[in-house]
Amino acid sequence: MNTPETSTASHVADPLRTDAAPEAAAPPRDFPIQRGCPFAAPPEYDALRTHDPVARVTLPTKKEAWAVTRYDDVRELLSDPRVSADIRRPNFPALGEGEQEAGARFRPFIRTDAPEHTKYRRMLLPVFTVRRVRAMRPAVQARVDEILDAMLAAGGPADLVSAYANAVSTSVICELLGIPGENLEFFRDVTRISGSRNSTAEQVAEALGGLFGLLADLVGKRREEPRDDLISKLVTEQLVPGHVTMDQLLSTLGITINAGRETTTSMIALSTLLLLDQPELREELRRDPSLMPAAVDELLRVLSVADSIPLRVAAEDIDLSGRTIPADDGVIALLAGANHDPEQFDEPERVDFHRTDNHHVAFGYGVHQCIGQHLARLELEVALETLVRRVPTLRLAGDRDDVVVVKHDSATFGLEELKVTW
Ligand code: HEM
């Protein structure tokens, strides 16, 4: 594992790196590529960035696609109007069959293009503004304290993923949407199944069907008696006047829950593990909580949990770093590749809460850039600050290999389990 001491990354531009056209395409390599250290991009990304920055890869579905690893290329690609996020395109580089089939059926707006995409994004944007999210801080703090009280009262050892990270991310999103008495494990299962590349289309459809059933029931209730929550707002402003159908509303609510829960859960759990591994960083945050916003952005960059979420198809031929991605080919913008590019970030493996100009792409880039990023930052700040302040004795509950379980089959990188005590 790379620690600041052992990191081999350099801020000096790699002399082997060239922007000239690669001589010949290397044979496709299998994708996804697993991480070695959970706090860094897979080590192979360094070689790809240097020698094969637009690389041919074979996906678990046996389809081929291109994988892009350089910071500048990732940003260029994600802001290029010639790329499409439409999951119905035959070469859309889904990492599992289930994701593609179910996605083509339910059409979550993250996997659509303008003008359809713009319509749903505009529908949600007012709820996620900085101002609206800032006003949520006291409520988020209260939920986080309640969840931590419950974890501490139950006594250690506890699984921090389910007892804290998943509980925080799920209850915040349920409160925003207006879902009462949230069943934490139910939501975790929905995301786990629908986000796993091993799930079949039937399994994904069944998991999403359960979620849509619960949401449809609530939509009916809020139609009768609106409240001050996101579901009521969308029912009153969009469904009732006929701007969206019931299916479209359910799909939009469903993707908001799925996109917001898993990523935030992963970030809280992995960040906690990193702070346990590097106690000097935890101590720095304990001594100076005002560092927390910068720390959260640095953790977002380093951990890049949504590494291979931005999946696209070239709608026309696209030239990038000396290669041409032919029209209709799938392409993946690797966020961990970009966020660990030494041309953009000095010593990218080093976790530095004082890093300046931290223009990471952990939330993506371009028209699909994460709509929930302000909320995500708020949740991370509150969850991590509260843990550092209230549980200074937090530690792993045994040997690392026994208490840390890494999740490898999911669209979002993260932990399945993190057993801690205090
Ligand atoms: C640390 C937490 C999070 C990370 C790392 C993250 C990451 C991302 C990334 C990389 C994208 C762009 C995907 C693409 O380009 O294809 C995205 C989009 C999205 N995220 Fe997040 N996200 C997080 C939290 C949230 C939260 C809390 C919510 C909502 C409550 C949310 C809702 C969404 C939605 C709806 C989209 C689709 C936007 C669009 O297509 O226009 N995310 N997220």
TrEMBL record:
PROSITE patterns: CYTOCHROME_P450
InterPro entries named in the record: Cyt_P450 (IPR001128), Cyt_P450_B (IPR002397), Cyt_P450_CS (IPR017972), Cyt_P450_sf (IPR036396)
Compositional bias (Polar residues): 1-10
Keywords annotated in UniProt: Heme, Iron, Metal-binding, Monooxygenase, Oxidoreductase
EC number(s) stated in the UniProt entry for this protein: 1.14.-.-
Gene3D superfamilies: Cytochrome P450
Domain of life of the native organism: Bacteria
GO molecular function (one): oxidoreductase activity
Residue segments, region Disordered: 1-35
Annotated family: Belongs to the cytochrome P450 family.
Protein name according to UniProt: Cytochrome P450
Organism per entry: Streptomyces ardesiacus
